[in-house]
Every structure is written in C-alpha cells, then in structure tokens.
Amino acid sequence: MEGNIRPAKNDSQDLLSLIDFLLIKFPSNDSQIQEKIKELDLEFIREDLPQLLESMNLGVERIRNISKSIRTFARQDREYKTVFNIHEGIDSTLLILKHRTKANQQRPAIDLVRNYGDIPQVECFPGQLNQVFMNILANAIDAFDEANEGKTYAEIETNPNRIQINTSIIEENQVQIQIEDNGGGMKPETKDRIFEYGFTTKDVGKGTGLGMAIAHQIITEKHGGTITCDSTLGKGTIFTIALPI
Length: 245
What we know:
Layout: H1 2-25, H2 31-40, H3 42-73, E1 82-84, H4 86-96, H5 98-101, E2 111-115, E3 122-124, H6 126-147, H7 153-158, E4 162-170, E5 174-181, H8 188-191, H9 211-222, E6 226-232, E7 236-244
Parallel strand pairs: 2-4
Antiparallel strand pairs: 1-3, 4-5, 5-7, 6-7
C-alpha cells in the first residue's frame, strides 16, 4: 500500500496541473462546465486530496510501527537466551498499551517519561521480559484509574498521572530498570505481599493475583536478577529491576 501512495500523490498533482492548464488554455463561460466545476467543488478537491493522501501515508506508518511493536513484544523465546534491546521491549509494550495511556473523557493522557541511559543489550528471554514490563505498566495504569476516582478532569490535569522509566548501568555488571508511577501507592501490608502467588487487591474478575508473582519468577529464576517494590500510600510506586549483563 505504501508503495502506491507516492505514485498516487504524483499522479493526482499531474491531473490537477492538467486541469489548471486546460482552464487557462481554453477558458470557457459554458454554463454546464461551470456548473460541473461547482458541483465537484474543484477548489476543495485541490486542497483536500493532498491532505488525504498524506493522512493515508501516516496511517501506513502507524500500522508499520504497531506491527513492529507486536513482533517485538510477542517474540517467541527459545530454549536459550538471546541478545535483546531493553529499550525496544519497553517501547513496544508502551505502544501496545497506548489505548490505555491516551486521553479519555475521564482524564488527560498519562505522561510517559523515558530517561533511557546508555545501556548495552542484554542476554535474556525477550518475550518473558516484555511480559514483566506489561504487568508492571498495566498495574500502574490500573492504580491511576483507582486514584482518579472522585477527581475532576481539571484536578487530574493539575497533577497529571505520570509513569517514569529510568534505565542505567549499576555496579558495572548489571542493567537497572526503574518504573515509577505517581498513582495511589500501596499500604505496607500490600507491598509486602505484592509478589505472592494469588494475592490481589482487585475486585473479583479483575485480577488473578498471578501477574507480579510471575514477574518475580521471570526476573529471579529465569534471569538471575532482582526485582523490588518501593511504595508510599498516596504518593506512588517504584519497581526496580536489576539484570546481569
């Protein structure tokens, strides 16, 4: 499709140029011709057609990006680890969650801050790591939904929901990923049980209590890393992941 848009754009410009040439070369006051030009709204077509084709081009670009993100996110892990770009994994997860982070009638768009450090690629199971990112980010969005209850759009806009992601190298042989939100935070007793299998604070049917337990297993058992949670009620939550390089 993309390969056809540029020729279509060029062809449409050629046709419009030909029409202009004919109108100048063979001016006519014929009422039928003038009526047809008015009926077709030639000036509107002249302005709208290039914009329409450009919109199609942007649509194709968005489809390509989404397709790439889905492929990155859904990479099938082999029996052995492969080299993976952590930032691409995070970006693909955020793009898949875009329908939940964009503005809606209840709140403005969630502010996404990426502070990416100069980190190397990591040998890992990419699909599993992406699942960890998905679980943490989806939980952060859920926390915003809960914290925003009873607030007006203007109140949320004054102190917007924010997710900040920091990556860096620590201790020369580890990559650190921090995912921080300014949602409602957790009670100490909730934070202490966050990685337990079957533990959830969500209503029946909305949570299985497996997401963070699986995330903990993936990081610690499958990758030899660590994952911790630091949360303050009313302020927000930080998940810190460390992976060996």
